[in-house]
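**User:** My hope is that you can spare some time for a protein that puzzles me. As I understand it, each token names a local backbone shape. I would be glad if you read both lines and explained how they fit together. The protein I mean follows directly.
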Amino acid sequence: MAGALTGPQEVLDRLTATLRDARAMPLSASCVVNRAEVLAMLDELRARLPEALGHAEQVLDGRAAVVEGGQREAEQVVARAQVERDRLLGRTEVLREAEAEAAKIIEDAVATAALTRAEADDYTDARLANFEVVLHRLLEAVERGRQALPGAQVLEALRSADADDSPLPG
């Protein structure tokens, strides 16, 4: 914009210099200037101003277009950022739901394992108790069978005799 107003600025500088250098009237703030010279400078200024103002308007219009373009670009960036934010938030929510589901599955698996272990322990205990009863009966049957043998009575008598005999004091 300064380049466009250089022409009018030059004319204004010359006009100011002309008035400053003009001969002062004694006892007055007035001065004597060459009317034709000042009028010529004013005409030159009038001729240059429309061109300078047109250039200034073009610069302002260009500035407005740049500002408008910047605003559009900023709005697009904000819109893209909002879409990305929504995508990330959605991803975070999906992750949170997946973690909650995984925790529930693990909790269910631990509970199922504990129940299965308790059932297996109960089953094993019942089978061992049953086996103990069967073994006890079998042992009793073996004992009765041994007692029924004819030689078993002789052996039993010998055992009782050995238990009754005490060693002789020496």
User: Anything to note?
Assistant: The chain has a mean pLDDT of 84. The helical segments are 6-21, 35-148, 150-164. The two ends are 143 Å apart (CA to CA). The longest strand covers residues 23-24.
